[in-house]
Design a protein that fits this description.
Helix content is 38%, strand content 14%. The protein has 681 residues and is α+β, with helices and mostly antiparallel strands. The chain has four domains: 3-199, no CATH class; 241-394, no CATH class; 409-470, SH3 type barrels, CATH 2.30.30; 486-647, Beta-clip-like.
């Protein structure tokens, strides 16, 4: 390929990458075809695999491929209806290994529904689902969603012929793909645009594209700003575009794509929507706290693979709420621990295609719902459940020379009948605990009834379903000496009595100074102030902190801001505080309003401006058995229309981190006596 052709193709791909995706890609294809670097051929289905970059690394969806075969059979086949694009198999060892491993993984995860390709020669970048469906038909795969080969040949002979001979492909040389590494991604994205295909892109495919774009930008040392990559990510007009900004933020902050995409990228086309991603991409608070990486991926895992709408955005918000912090962190830690434990003892590659492992993984690693949180909370039963879930991964059935199980107890263990587990038999309402399991029998301990004691039963009774896993029986609990728990000893009850006494005392003090209320007025707008209506001599204006909001705190607890402490009020360790209370009479009945001028007096940091002060200060350690109430008294004469002001010291500014200067200038050079340069000391 000469340099002028390379430059022309590079310019076309640049246009495709920045603005005109479809026209840019087709211009590059026309240049290749004119120069002889693109040829057409009819290829048998078993010769063509899937390019690792197809659908941004997603590959294909077998359910979609099988459904496509049925749709084609319903409407009829024509050879010109499917013309795909592919590239030749890489010749270098790394590229060849990547392609082979990618296609082998797709085949292994299909559970026998897609046979492997023994002689892989070409890699598809479009029409991949069509070719996969043809491969499955030719291999005689049995599936409820895939028509049989017999039906295909009898109903549509051209379609049946296409199964054997394949479809027409436009093949690009591997050297071209190697010369333009971004060409495969642009090509598959071009043919995934809604104008060209009937099956829209879904979120997991967009996740792959986002991760590829971020990785590519990092290698090229480009900006990772979403606004710089938005055009590229949304070129194919995906239907889930509303979620892309939040998905991008999630991948950038909490990517770790191996956690999420390793086992669910194939066969899942569900879109969970922008709301869930919007919650999961938010930074933890505080910023340096545990990011709960496994839990975030677990929620997405559940949303994509569980029943429809099992996870909602409100569920995510609740799980990240501070009230659930302890249980959530324990769940996240256990997910990490179990993940690491299994991977240290079992081949990861074999696990990725093992159905038992995937089922266990969904249950343990990626089920951080409320049910999982309860299941993984501290307790014996939770540990047994976890042990049962891991049993298929830690043990393997062994057989003797005659083909019988070497240890028949393994079948019971796999069903959850472990030592110390509780079981019940419905017929005679027996509840027992498993004490031991041998190769032929099970020893049970029965605590109550005519059969109380240790008994022996056979394995067959468990396999027949006579025994079921059960909860431990409820133990009898009797409560005596009820006088110890009378209301006179209840802390909360005594607090209520004390608060009632405080309210009565506040009412009594307010009544004794009720003349102040009729001599004041309240300015609500533009600024709330208490204003005198008549003259008061020094010490004659008394305001009482009446309130219905009284809180009790332990000595070590921090009270609410601007509350008034009234000490322990005769109790031993409880401190009581009066909190501000104001319910504006505007649009309220008289009985619903609450106006106490004490709480509405403005404050000042200038001591000379103040005309009110506190008559009494009570500390948290003061006993205050007589319920002395701190009041606010005028410290000088107050004239009509004077605004009441109380002095409060100005709060000290918090210390900030010192700024350390950094010398960015190199040390100056000086000339020595002989004219050579030397550094200054």
């Amino acid at each position: 390929m000469d340099q002028s052709l390379k430059d022309s193709i590079a310019a076309a791909l640049k246009d495709a990458e920045t603005s005109q995706l479809v026209s840019g890609v087709h211009k590059a294809l026309d240049l290749l075809q004119h120069a002889g670097h693109l040829f057409e051929a009819v290829l048998e289905p078993q010769m063509v695999g899937i390019h690792p970059m197809n659908r941004d690394g997603y590959g294909c969806n077998l359910e979609d491929a099988f459904a496509l075969m049925q749709n084609i059979l319903d409407i009829g086949w024509h050879d010109t209806s499917a013309i795909g694009y592919a590239c030749a198999m890489p010749t270098d060892e790394p590229g060849m290994k990547e392609a082979v491993d990618f296609n082998l993984a797709i085949s292994e995860r299909s559970n026998g529904q897609l046979p492997p390709i023994p002689d892989l020669r070409f890699l598809s970048l479009s029409c991949s689902h069509t070719n996969v469906g043809l491969r499955a038909l030719k291999a005689g795969v049995q599936s409820s969603s895939l028509p049989s080969m017999q039906d295909t040949e009898s109903k549509d002979k051209p379609f049946g012929a296409a199964v054997h001979k394949g479809i027409r492909w436009r093949v690009i040389s591997h050297e071209t793909m190697k010369c333009f590494p971004k060409f495969p991604q642009l090509l598959q994205s071009c043919f995934n645009s809604p104008a060209q295909i009937s099956k829209g892109e879904h979120e997991l495919q967009l996740l792959r594209r986002i991760m590829y774009a971020i990785e590519s930008s990092q290698k090229e040392k480009k900006s990772l700003d979403y606004s710089k990559l938005q055009k590229h990510l949304l070129q194919s007009k995906p239907s889930c575009s509303a979620a892309v900004p939040y998905m991008y933020s999630f991948v950038l902050k909490f990517g770790a794509e191996d956690l999420l995409l390793r086992t669910i990228s194939l066969g899942k086309t569900r879109n969970v929507g922008p709301e869930i991603y919007e919650v999961l991409c938010q930074d933890p608070k505080p910023a340096l706290s545990n990011p709960l990486l496994h839990l975030r991926h677990g929620l997405l895992r559940m949303a994509y693979t569980g029943p429809e709408k099992i996870v909602s955005s409100s569920d995510c918000k609740k799980i990240f709420h501070k009230d659930y912090k302890s249980n959530v962190e324990k769940t996240n830690a256990l997910m990490m621990l179990v993940n690491e434990m299994i991977r240290q003892h079992v081949s990861v590659k074999s696990l990725e295609i093992d159905e038992a492992y995937l089922k266990c993984e969904r249950e343990v690693f990626f089920a951080p719902s409320a049910r999982l949180t309860r299941m993984l909370s501290p307790g014996t039963q939770s540990k047994k459940r976890l042990c049962f879930l891991l049993t298929p991964l830690r043990t393997k059935r062994e057989f003797n020379q005659v083909g019988q199980l070497a240890d028949a107890s393994m079948l019971l263990l796999e069903k959850g009948f472990t030592v110390d587990a509780w079981v019940s038999r419905k017929k005679d309402k027996i509840v027992a605990q498993i004490k031991s399991i041998s190769n032929t029998s099970v020893i049970l301990s029965i605590e109550e009834g005519d059969l109380a004691g240790t008994v022996q039963v056979s394995h067959s009774s468990f396999h027949k379903g006579e025994w079921k896993l059960s909860k431990a029986p409820v133990q009898k609990v009797n409560l005596e000496q009820l006088e110890l728990y009378a209301s006179s000893t209840n802390t909360e009850f005594l607090k209520k009595i004390c608060i009632g006494n405080i309210c009565a005392k506040l009412l009594d003090v307010e009544t004794s100074h009720s003349d102040a209320l009729s001599s004041l007025k309240l300015a609500l707008k533009p600024r709330r102030n208490v204003v005198a209506s008549k003259k008061f001599a020094k010490g004659k204006l008394v305001l009482v902190p009446t309130t219905a909001k009284i809180e009790s705190k332990d000595v070590s607890e921090t009270p609410s801001n601007n509350s008034i402490c009234i000490g322990r009020c005769g109790t031993e360790s409880t401190v009581y505080h009066l909190n501000a209370h104001f319910a504006s009479p505007v649009d309220k009945d008289v009985g619903d309003a609450f106006v106490s001028p004490f709480w509405l007096v403005s404050t000042t940091h200038v001591q000379e401006e103040a005309n009110m002060h506190m008559s009494l200060t009570v500390g948290p350690s003061d006993k205050n058995s007589t319920l002395k109430i701190p009041t606010m008294v005028n410290l000088c004469a107050v004239n009509p229309e004077d605004v009441l002001l109380r002095y409060v010291p100005k709060p000290a500014k918090p210390d900030v981190e010192a700024v350390v200067p950094v010398n960015t200038n190199p040390p100056a050079k000086r000339l020595t006596a002989k004219g050579s340069q030397g550094s200054t000391a």
